[in-house]
Amino acid sequence: MNLKNLMKAAIRSLAKNKMRTFLTMLGIIIGVASVITMLAIGQGSRESIQAQISTLGTNVMMIFPSASTTGGVRMEAGTSQRMTLDDAKAVTERCPSILYLTPQVRTSGQLVAGSSNWRTSVYGVYPEYFDIRNLKIETGDRFSMNDDRSAAKVCLVGQTVVINLFGEGADAVGRFIRINKIPFKIVGIIEKKGQNAFGQDQDDMVIAPFSTVQKRMLTITYIQSMMASAKSESLIPAATEEITEVLKTRHRLGPSEDPDFTIRTQSDIAKTATETSRIMTILLATIASISLLVGGIGIMNIMLVSVTERTREIGIRMSVGARGRDVLLQFLIEALLISLIGGLIGIGLGVLVSQIVTDFMNWPITITLQSILMSFLFSSAIGIFFGWYPAQKAARLNPIDALRYE
Amino acid sequence: MHHKLHADQEEGIKMNKTIISVKNLVKIYNMGDVEVHALRGIDMDIHREDFIAIMGKSGSGKSTFMNIVGCLDVPTRGKYFLDGVDVSSLTKDQLANLRNRKIGFVFQSFNLLSRTSALENVELPLMYNHKVSSREMKERSVKALEAVGLGDRCGHFPNQLSGGEQQRVAIARSLVNDPVVILADEPTGNLDTRTSLEVMDIFQDLNRKGITIVIVTHEADIALFTKKNVTFKDGRIIRMVENERVRNAKEELALIPAPTMEEDL
Asked: Which member of B107, B115, B125 has the closest CB to residue A321?
């Protein structure tokens, strides 16, 4: 039989049992739709996590001193006081893969403005910090290196700080606040960044010149950490190596000795976060695939019933010259039609459900062409796989027995 | 459809050419421990333009014989030549091809595909023949339906046709591939007297046009319409006689009063 006649015969026999065909198809429809939806949700959350992480800045690297040891008792990471401003200068000068670098010190401060007060973190950094973290200034301007040299009492504040000290939408530039009783002039407001991937409010902070915080507030001589950005994402490993070498040399550590600092890169952080959501996606898709599998078993089940019911028809066809493979093809095409049409409807339904999820629940979704193609191929594979056994059973019937079947 | 035969006739080729020849045909079924000898050595030749009735009680082996002749089954031992081809050694697919090109079947229970029009039922054998275009398929099927007097029923479905009409569609289906022989297994078994006569009339008509027909029947009066009667018993042929006075179905049909109502229901 040619393909046209095969299709005609398959469509006719599927149309003969419309309800049954539809219910069988429903298994595939639900299966494909849930795979599409789950992948869309998984992919969407992954991308939103990635987007949030990239708000930290791209190609960012953080260099922390290791834990200090006092008489064999190891302290928290970052408590070592061996990292100095000279280290930072050396790294800046001798690491060609690094674009920007800033030393960093952090303290918390009680902020007072008029009758309002607020407690938040105060960061002491170089102006490059804004480039590294990709922070935009909404109003005002960043401080300069001159401010740092003179340890000027100037600062930039985030939106949350503005809201809590001056109220929503207030123009805070040029106004003075006291941080731990030291008066600071606000020179700029940082553009709103929102929460980061870990739920931290990135707008709740004060940024002041490095020297100001180090000398005036903390009164320490070492630096707590460095933040740098590599020239490109692909240069991060090279930058890591350069920094390690420079710092080890400066700290008089042999090549085989463990470094007394830790370098953490943006991609490490991103990897951890996306890995979590990737596992989640796989989990969701696996569960959804199981429903697709169950749909496939439904096809097999109904095709087996159909072969039994139509034993006589098979006998008639064989008596007029249908070969085993003609019969096989006929039943296989029926199974394939169910799964293909079911797959197509399922894709439509999946896209629709994903849209509903994002509209009503505000979950980020991303439907990729890849996931559509994959579930389409998967559903046709299921049609062939689960249609094969019943079709084979039909093809192997003995024409005499088939003709006699009541 | 049968101009080939007419051409042969005109050229004076020997008309009683052997088209089916079986020699010492044996069929044994293994039913667990028991061996059932369905055929115990059948020798028979069927010639072109023969019209044979095979008779015998159930279990006599006549159905087994028909199945083997119809290439639905293979013999345990013995030789079977169909139109010069040794069938005993063919594969399943080759048997299917032979059925498709050389055999036409008519069954007791009609065996039409339900919810499929008469025309499409008749087209069925040609669908499995790649050499036939869909246009030729339709032309030949319409012709076959016309040959059995159902030219006006092409679009009817089996459930819209009477039993006699359904059997005529089945005969048209058996004709459409221009077979060397039509095999009919109890073709009148499900039909009343009048309809049986109609079916036999069609068979006689087709036979007069040169088509070879073999029917299996247990009704002695149906056998009287054929040219040769073969009786099976316990897997052997016990009687083979030429029918000297072949009854004419058309004449007898004329004697029976026309039906007052739709029969066959």
From this structure: B125
Report CB contact under 8 Å: B99, A319.
yes
Nearest CA in chain A to B125: A320
Q: What is the ipTM, given to two decimal places?
A: 0.89
Q: What is the DSSP letter of B261?
A: S
Residue in chain B nearest A16 by alpha carbon: B115
Dmax of chain A from CA atoms? Answer: 105
**Closest chain B residue by Cα to residue A6:** B127
A14 CB-near residues (< 8 Å, 6+ apart) = A21, A334, A337, A338
Q: Which of A312, A319, A325 comes nearest B72 by C-beta?
A: A319
* φ/ψ of residue A15, rounded to 5: -70, -25
Collect all residues of chain B within an 8 Å Cβ-Cβ radius of residue A6. Answer: none
In chain A, the residue whose alpha carbon lies closest to the alpha carbon of B63 is: A400
State the nearest Cα–Cα gap between A367 and chain B, in angstroms: 43
**Chain A to chain B, count of Cβ pairs less than 8 Å apart?**
63
C-beta separation of A37 from A289 below 8 A: no
Q: Can you give the residue ranges of every domain in chain A? A: 3-52+272-404, 81-259
Task: Write the CB contacts of A34 (distance below 8 Å, at least 6 apart in sequence).
Answer: A287, A288, A291, A292, A350
Q: Give chain B's domains with CATH numbers.
A: 49-71+88-255 (3.40.50.300)
pTM strictly above 0.80: no
Helix, strand, or coil (residue B235): coil
Q: What is the pLDDT along chain B (265 residues), one digit of tens a residue?
A: 444 445 444 444 445 689 999 999 999 998 888 899 999 999 999 999 999 999 999 889 998 999 999 999 889 999 999 988 899 888 999 999 999 999 999 999 999 998 889 999 999 999 999 899 989 999 999 999 999 999 999 999 999 999 999 999 999 999 999 999 999 999 998 899 999 999 999 999 999 999 999 999 988 999 999 999 999 999 999 999 999 889 999 999 888 877 655 554 4
Q: What's the number of CA atoms in the CB half-sphere (13 Å) around residue B157?
A: 5
Among B31, B69, B72, which would you mutate to test the A interface (most chain A Cβ atoms within 10 Å of its Cβ)? B72
